[in-house]
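Side project, low priority. Logging it here so it doesn't get lost.
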Amino acid sequence: MVKRCPRCGHVFECRSNDIAHCQCTRVLMPHGLPSWVKELYNECLCEDCLRALAKEASDEAESSSKSS
């Protein structure tokens, strides 16, 4: 199914009905990120946005662990 990413507007193929081949399974997301994304967005995000959010969350976690 073709969708438009609600975060960036990019058109992508969502395979939520075939999760083994869904682009979101290629993104390593930190704990808690999937539920946070679901709270903010009503639709699936494209792989680029998922990667960007995962990187931001990972960088933030790393930064806070260094300051502890």
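Brief comment: The beta strands are 2-4, 11-13.
Revisit when time allows.
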